[in-house]
Amino acid sequence: MGLIDFAAALVGIPVLAASVYLTLLALLSRRQPPPASRPPHLKFDFVVPAHNEETQIAATVQSLLNVDYPPALFRVLVVADNCSDRTAAAAVAAGATVLVRTDAERRGKGYALDHTFNRSLEDGFADAVVVIDADTVVSPNLLTAFAARFERGALAVQADYAVRNPRESWRTRMMTVAFAAFHGVRSLARERLGVSCGLRGNGMGFSRAVLKDHPHRAFSIVEDVEYGIQLGYAGVAVRYVDEARVFGQMVTGEQASRSQRERWENGRRALIREHAGPLLRAAWQRRNGLLLDLALDLLVPPLGELVAVIAVGAAVCAAVTSLHGGIAPWIWGASAAGVFVYVLRAWVLSGVGAVGALDLMRAPFYIMWKLMLRMRPHKRRSKDEWVRTTREVRM
Fold first, then answer.
1. What CA–CA distance (Å, rounded) separates 180 from 202?
2. Which of 32, 87, 123, 281 makes an SS bond possible with 83, Cβ 3.0 to 4.6 Å?
3. In terms of C-beta density within 10 A (0-12 exposed, 13-18 middle, 19 or more buried), how is residue 263 classed?
4. Per-residue pLDDT, 376
């Protein structure tokens, strides 16, 4: 093995490890039959954190009120958090109970959730709470499916998080495939492995017991992932509810997409710095697969970045080792093959069909756009600042 081949192979090993992890998840992502439901008796609070969502909130409240579950067994609580529009009035008109929260210092979705969770616990009505974003509609079976999991001992659950407007543009179709990869493939496989599927912010549910024993103390821009990690340290696995779905409205404009993506990426990087090392140490000390998987989920790069690294690595490897052969081309080639299997499985789950497959040909441009976001200087914001993403209104 030549020195160049050895160096190229050494650089490719962590990339191959990430690719193998994703390939295994793809191979394990077979859907399981849902558990049988029982006559409804558990009570739920829908918790809808809303910041300046007057154009979206009525449709969300109506969707929640129309779930296939006895109306006497659930409430819809909208927390109008630091709003400067008519969100509260629109939610009341739609039939929700509204909590108005104004706090100039503690701003953000995490604080809104903490406030409403505490209110739910104080009221004593609900056996569990379900968090729904203010631009979301839900499948009618949501509470029935959640109840089936809670009745079987689950303490935290996560519905499938899908795209509400997948046919609107090539960008939303690509996001549909990306959601199928991150929310579908990964969650299905992690459920089969018996570890935590993690929290996705929208469509997550918590039993009254878990909120009392492990209060919500996550206030970063990625408060969902943060709280999922906190629960993981406590040994609480989030169960994936594949048959129940929440559909979030995705942005179609480039500027709004950029703003949203910047916040997600910055928040995720902060969590990696804070938790990746401690999760690995705790996993080793406790011999705990749940914590190991949470660490791996953080450490595996976003799909776009992984594809970009593989493309560059494979091209460089081909250029410098083509005359001499070696092991490096096999490592980079296997990495590319593994990611292809993962994306293929995500495309199958996404349901976007042939049009979505053609849109995947735009992936190199989408990846370049994401990489440019990583390299550009970022405007500094408070880590818990609530910035509403501008969305197109669809009636």
1. 15
2. 87
3. middle
4. 59
Q: For residue 159, give both structure tokens.
A: 């519905």
> Residue 284 has what pLDDT?
95
Round to whole Å and give the CA distance between 311 and 187.
27
- Which residue, 56, 78, 44, is CA-closest to 149? 44
Residue 35: what are its φ and ψ, rounded to 5°?
-70, 155
218 CB neighbour count, 10 Å cutoff: 23
Q: In what order do the strands lie in the sheet with 238-248?
A: 97-101, 74-81, 44-50, 128-131, 204-207, 156-163, 238-248, 136-138
Superfamily of domain 44-253: Spore Coat Polysaccharide Biosynthesis Protein SpsA; Chain A (3.90.550.10)
d(CA 42, CA 44): 7
Residue 72 CB neighbours (<10 A)? 8
Q: How many Cβ atoms sit within 10 Å of the Cβ of residue 25?
A: 25
Question: In angstroms, rounded to a whole number, what is the distance separating the alpha carbons of residues 349 and 176?
Answer: 9
Helix 186-193, helix 289-299: angle, nearest 10: 160
**Type and span of the H or E element at 294:** helix 289-299
Report the pLDDT value the prediction gives residue 379, as an integer from 0 to 100: 54
Q: Are 52 and 390 in contact (CB under 8 A)?
A: no
Q: Looking at the chain, how many residues does it have?
A: 395
Q: What is the mean pLDDT of each run of 10 residues along the chain (395 residues)?
A: 77 92 94 89 97 94 97 97 94 95 89 95 97 96 97 96 83 85 93 93 96 92 92 96 91 58 74 92 95 93 85 78 71 92 92 80 66 57 52 37
Domain boundaries, the chain: 3-28+301-375, 44-253
Report the phi/psi class of residue 139: left, alpha or beta, with left for phi > 0 and alpha for psi in -120 to 50. beta
Query: Residue 372: is it exposed, middle or buried by C-beta count within 10 angstroms (0-12/13-18/19+)?
Result: exposed
Helix (H) or strand (E) holding 77: strand 74-81
Which residues lie below 8 Å from residue 292, measured CB to CB, with a gap of 6+? 279, 280, 283
Instruction: With H, G, I as helix, E, B as strand and everything else as coil, classify residue 60.
Output: helix
SS3 266: helix
Residue type, 92: V
Token pair for 116: 């409403």
